Amino acid sequence: MTSSEPRTATKGEILIVEDTPASLVLLSELLTGAGYAFGRNQP
Question: Is this model's pTM higher than 0.90 or not?
């Protein structure tokens, strides 16, 4: 994200560390829907 892009308000930021791709997708969708921003571990 660059400084020229607007930030949306979130409840907080969460780092998701998960080995199972399906669980990662589910967690990210649930948390995004609940208003949280998240980061993922990138191999």
Answer: no
